[in-house]
Amino acid sequence: MLVHDNFHTRYPTNHSSSHRHHRSICLQTHASINRSILTTTMASEDSTAPAVFDTDAANCLTKELRSTFLAGKTKSYEWRSSQLKSLLKMLDDCEKQICDALFSDLAKPEMEAYIHEIAMIKSSCKVALKKLKDWMKPEKAKTNLGTFPSSAEIVPEPLGVVLVISAWNYPLLLSVDPVIGAIAAGNAVVLKPSELAPAMSSLLAKLLGKYLDNSAIKVVEGAVNETSVLLEQKWDKIFYTGNGRVARIVMAAAAKNLTPVVLELGGKSPVLVDSNIDLAVTSRRIVGGKWGTNNGQACVGPDYIITTKQYAPVLIDSLKHNLVKFFGEDPMNSPDISRIGHDRHFARLKKLLDDDKISGKIIHGGQTDKSSLKIAPTIVLDAPEDSLMMSEEIFGPLLPIVTVEKIEDGIEFINSRPKPLAAYLFTNNKQLKEAFVSSVSAGGVVINDVTLHLMVDTLPFGGVGESGMGAYHGKFSFDAFSHKKAVLYRSFYGDAPARYPPYTPGKLRLLKALLDGSLFGIIRALFGFS
Amino acid sequence: MNIYTKTILHIYESKITKKNMMNDHLEVDLKELRETFNSGKTKESSWRIKQLRGLLRILEDREDDISMALKQDLGKHHVEAYRDEIGTVVKSLNNALDNLKHWMAAKKTRLPIAAFPSSASLVPEPLGVVLIISSWNFPIGLSLEPLIGALAAGNAVILKPSELAPTCSSFLAETIRDYLDNSAIKVIEGGSDLGSTRVGRVVMSAAAQHLTPVTLELGGKCPAVVDSFSSSRENNITAKRIVWGKYGLCAGQACIGIDYVLTEKKYLPNLVESLKRYIKQCYGDDPNGSHSISKIVNKKHFSRLKSLLDEPMVKSSVVYGGVLDEESLFIEPTILVDPPLDSAIMTEEIFGPLLPIITLENIEDSINFIKARPNPLALYAFTENENLQKRLVSETSSGSLMFNDAILQYVVDALPFGGVGGSGFGRYHGKFSFDNFSHEKAVIMRGFLVDFWFRYPPWTTQKLQLLKAGLRYDYLGLVLIALGLKSKA
């Protein structure tokens, strides 16, 4: 696919006619693009344009970014804040285009597009602008008595040239949020948006190219080939959002250059529902969190429910009631629910539904329509543990309900599986809350709501175990793309002869006391005691 | 390599192959560790404190055995052994014991008003079963420092000490078995040669298959920028500290040891004279017999260092020392002046008692010199010039940066210890050790009382306006829209 930045490299003033020509080809094609046809069309229509992003192009790209970084341009507060301000302006100016792209890629309702993507990314930008000076300041560190007299501080510095690989389900948020962190920390950055959300990918290439400093921030569009070529380069950090299978490939590639990574993955985020709750609120929050959040295609969306055998019927009735309230009697045609992202994903979800192991267990929904890529909100009761639906992350509008004898068994059930990105509990019972928080390991835990922790920028957002490593949001984004350099200033006054050979027992005594940090011990040693 | 939840690797020639790691007991050991961890035992603060105290007892009861093991493996003088490997670890243990409760406590965090009413906190929890692979040059210190972090954070641990320091390795295996909880902490010995810088890649590639996060504490060439001072006292102490920072820790076989010096041409003669004087003062006329300097760890490294010196243009740049004795694996403190920049001694990490001095026209040129090379684990600068200091802080990147001394950043608990770029990633020491082996879990508690109806579909323009106002903290706007008195946020 296109490499807008390659044009930027060759034609610094940009907006050449061939550039516009290529972009229009991109926008004309639909979500279900045939990439090879596009490449051929491009090649035949303009033989001077690069049809493929190959190793040479990647080398050029990283070379330019590295020299921008080494020149020191991205380190200044002025540069970082000017980029963040431009980004904010871009989000304000282009809100409609963004909503259109989200609708084109995912049929995302305008509300969801605004609340879950645009508002969140604006807020992230504003927080970074407001706090940047603070974040950039060195932090004083306490020194040990043994190094007296000295003073120490921890100085944040950018890592250098970083790569951000984003996902298709929140294509604006998951692309721009890490980029905000990278810029705030003073790095040069390459963004590779997901090709499975092509309208947003091409919009980001165009808008970031227009609003931000091209010598330091670039967008590379493409799929597997382009990503592989990028991964061969040496980066100072790689930030990947996506699934565990590709994460292993990314980390293995990073290992070749000893590049540190942040991996924001997923997992099956469970919702444990007790009977001691406010049912109306619980049910609304679950339905909103599951189907009102990109129709289940969210890494922290509720994946499945665990509740007691006894309470299940009550809960199910309430869920069905709210499903109708939110999406009407005919959810397949409701404008308030997203569609499935793309063909391959639709096929995968259909496979989960067609699994023999769950036949007869679908108690609500189950309708699918391939032509419009829609699947109705579906509830499945007691899907067996070895069914497809219970062994992989669903990432769609299917909600299995697992029943247990007593509610505490739910905690054991969760702990016997890989650590999820998020774990949820609905209860008024204090002991159950405490047991859940202390024994369930997940990226984040929310009691009596779902997905909320994403919106709190004072909390680190990231996984653990299979759900990922590293975290971001707020200051954690800045930290993720920084190196915290330890700086120690020593003076010449305190020069303990005890340090130097030739070594004597007296020196040993003094050293022991110095390391112990005990002033009294030092005095004793100096006087020849202990 | 099996599934660990975290791996920390200290390397300079650590040796691992898949075959050797998979000894008979490994599978059984791992299973036991995982069961122990799942039982919740290691999470209890009482258990963690008990293990940390157990480590303290090892260092107190067996100080002499440790000194002997270090003498045996590396020829370390027992003062050096105490200072670098026992004393520092005791300090870290006391720091961990004093602060453990505080580190383990959940931390409340500030919430934006839009999330009202809720409470949020960060809860640290152990990762699970972790692997520590340590190095041969500080075989006790570099095994126990990360172990403190792993245990303080509540994990089960496998420690693989370096087989290049075999006496220390067996010492650790025996004492950890006797003093600590065997069902949760195990030592695995053995391994075979692979080679230095490749090991980091091998470990990280293996970890990638299981999505295991890693911390890599690597090395590099740590430069010392040496400016001249206005007072001779300071020039003298500088020279002394350089001698110490180069030869005084495991004969230069230290990842944060001074690798080479950068100084101005005009200051060179004074510097070399001072260095020679202090080398004699510290090591006497017969350094080989002084017992105050460690030996080279083995024949392989000895040959490696010898071949660094054997390069023709390098040999002729030696101005002091250069005596080698293969029998006793001794290399004399050696100074070289301006060996070729493309020679092996100037392109590879030296890790031995050979000190090249590179001369520059101007001391400020050192900044570009350093920037043109991989980020080192540590950068040292001896200067009273505040402008140069500021430039070094802001224009160079290194794991750590120290002014007017060397090595000491290692003992400061409040400073993170780790590399950047080629010198590695991740960090530890003090609380950073605890954090390194923890997962910080975000926890939000909500109530049922307040539930904004405009959160939910079906979506209407009014709901959108309310949400926009709410997210902008425009509460008046929120009320007006809700009352129908305003239509747009």
UniProtKB/TrEMBL annotation, chain A:
SUPFAM superfamilies: ALDH-like (SSF53720). Pfam families: Aldedh (PF00171). Signal peptide: none annotated. Residues 73-487 form the Aldehyde dehydrogenase domain. It catalyses: an aldehyde + NAD(+) + H2O = a carboxylate + NADH + 2 H(+). The active site is at E264, C299. GO terms for biological process: aldehyde metabolic process; response to abscisic acid. Keywords: NAD, Oxidoreductase. GO terms for molecular function: aldehyde dehydrogenase (NAD+) activity. One of its GO terms (cellular component) is cytoplasm. PANTHER family: ALDEHYDE DEHYDROGENASE, ALDEHYDE DEHYDROGENASE TYPE III, ISOFORM Q. Belongs to the aldehyde dehydrogenase family. This is Aldehyde dehydrogenase.
